[in-house]
Amino acid sequence: MEMTSLMDVMFLVLVFFIYCIFDMTVHKGAKVDLPNAAGADEKGERIVVTILPDDSLQFNGQPMSKSDIVERVAELNRVHMDFPVLISGDRRASLGTGIELLAELKAAGVARASFQVSGKGPAK
Known about the structure:
By secondary structure, the chain is α/β, with parallel strands linked by helices. The protein has a single domain, classed as Nucleotidyltransferase, domain 5 (2-Layer Sandwich). Helix content is 37%, strand content 15%. The chain has 3 helices and 5 strands; from the N terminus they run αβββαβαβ. A 5-stranded mixed sheet has the order 3-2-1-4-5, covered by helices on one side.
């Protein structure tokens, strides 16, 4: 019996599953209706701050106040866990909440904070 072709098929299946595992991303926030805009694709470990339509905030899926979020992120930066912060705001949330959060994060020394967008480009 010829085993070479079977080994080739098993190798390709293994490579396929390894590739799929590395390409998976974990979204830690709540599902929100993101604004349409072109943006870069963030991969890897990150902190997700979600702004819900009623302007309440979540830190990696857990409800939290703005000051607690800024304190927690600054603490992670102090212990050299410099993860990028992704602000995922619903399009119905007020712009002021997102800008205030971004400003407080920058003031706390967070260098890598950005807004998450749908990546579809501007709505026409």
